[in-house]
Amino acid sequence: MTDQNIEQDRPAKSKGSAAFPIGLVLTMGAAYTLSYLDRQVVNIVAEHIKHDLQLADWQLGAISGLAFALLYATLGIPVARIAERTNRSALISVALIVWSACTTVIGFAQNFWQLALARFGVGFGESGCTPPAMSLIADVTKPEQRSKALSIYNLGVPVGALLGMMLGGFLVDIVGWRAVFFIVGPPGILLAIVIFLFIKDPRSKKKTVNPLEDPAAALEPEDHVPKMSEVAKSLASKQAFIWMTLGTCLTVFVGYSMHAFLAPFFLRVHAEGLAELATSMGLPGPTSLVGLGLGIGLGLGGALGTLIGGHAGDFWKSKKVYAFTPGIGALLAAPTYALTFVIPSAGWAMLFLIIPSVLSSMWYGPVYASIQGLSHPRSRATAIAIFLFLLNAIGLGLGPLSVGLVSDTLAASLGAADGLRWAMIIVSGVSAISALCYWFAAKPLEKEMIE
User: Fold this and answer.
1) 14 exposure class (CB count in 10 Å sphere: 0-12, 13-18, 19+)
2) What is the pLDDT of residues 286-336, one digit of tens each?
């Protein structure tokens, strides 16, 4: 299917509702918040798991990133193909139940492979969230509202990070790391029930199938849904998609690396100062202090960056801003991340972390809006799934693992603390390269967006 065919197949006027669909957007955002909470909580308790199960840093990186990303990335595309033809609300409900149950099971793990298997399950479940959720949001919002709507949805990342860090940090010092997963997993099942009962897919009932009632019918082809090969060919022909995707892959490569190892970094490099500060504040232990500090740093900074990026994407008429906004953020994030790791005070370092968190989170609204704008309306879930496959295979799958490998290598000569410090400084420099990719995306983006 050519871009000309896609244009002809589009409705002449956007079907987005006049009123901003805040209820649906917030509910989808709540699902994404729980999704990211379940990912993030592993990171705050990672140092406890490392010592309890005798793991190396590369194994921490693997369970944080690679084990999760393998199924999360690869299953996103077939799940998205189902989402193009089925009831997306029901699909998201099923996904929530699966990943919430697998998060709970992590608390029973006795070794690295059991941890990895449970994380496979979390990735399997979460692959059914973002492609159908973003497709759903795009269908009910006008183009000029889309960057803002998607930035609100993506507030799930910083809010989930804040809750994961703060809850995990406090709970692990009080009840231990295993009980943390028994507490944070089950709420997702309750939200799944709410979504199934109250969130309606706006597609015609004649064109949708409930996967809970008829899973086989959900896979039957429909003429009005572009084929997978057509979607892939259309996206591959767009220079804007290629450069935006590459830039974002490198951005999240850094972001996921930082998130996976920030808690271990502070607990190793600032151990003495954290213990004294936690005692003076009446906190149960240093991990709770790190959880509080990182929750504020990542959560507040990430929320501000996500909102700033989303509003910037809708404020200016030129579509080039969809590339320039994340590009500027990525360029400035590299040196500010590096500075975080050389500040001698743990308190000031966690406070300063807000700055790179803002800068590295400005991509969400503009990038996702551009991907949706480059896609046919009935291939949006597939386009997002292809994008997320590349994003998570490179960023989530390789980022934390790379930091762990570099850290283990440097630890032989520098020690565990400084080895991790320099591994994170080295990886943070990749963010500057991503800014160059966004720069190359700007000009073709304005020409290639369908709407």
Assistant:
1) middle
2) 999 999 999 888 888 988 998 888 777 666 667 788 899 999 999 999 999
Provide the greatest CA pair distance for the chain: 66
Q: How many CB atoms lie within 10 A of CB 370?
A: 28
Fill in the amino acid letter for 243.
W
The residues, ordered by sequence, that sit 6+ positions from 274 with a Cβ below 8 Å of its Cβ are 266, 267, 286, 289, 290, 346
63 residue type, one letter: I
The answer to whether residues 209 and 201 touch, using CB atoms and an 8 Å cutoff, is no
Q: How big is the chain, counted in residues?
A: 451
Residues 6+ apart with CB under 8 A from 399: 65, 252, 253, 254, 255, 256, 257, 260, 427
Contacts 24+ apart (CB under 8 A), 201-206: 201/87, 201/88, 201/89, 201/90, 201/136, 202/136, 202/139, 202/140, 203/139
pTM of the model: 0.74
Residue 268's contacts (CB-CB under 8 Å, 6 or more residues apart) are: 47, 416, 417, 420
Q: What is the chain's alpha carbon radius of gyration, rounded to the nearest angstrom?
A: 21
Q: How far apart are CA 261 and CA 267, in angstroms?
A: 10
How far lies 213's CA from each of 79, 90, 206, 216, 218, in Å? 17, 10, 15, 9, 10
Q: For residues 265 and 404, what is the distance between their CA atoms, to the nearest angstrom?
A: 11
Q: How far apart are CA 138 and CA 369, in angstroms?
A: 9
The highest-level CATH class for domain 22-205+226-448 is mainly alpha
Q: What is the C-alpha separation between 362 and 340, in angstroms, rounded?
A: 19
pLDDT in tens, 8-26: 344 334 444 457 788 899 9
CA atoms of 446 and 427, how far apart (whole Å)? 31
Q: Which two tokens stand for residue 134?
A: 């973003």
Q: What is the mean pLDDT of the chain?
A: 85
Domain ranges of the chain: 22-205+226-448
What the block records as the tokens of 179 is 């009980």
What digits encode the pLDDT tens for the residues 125-143?
A: 998 998 899 888 888 888 7
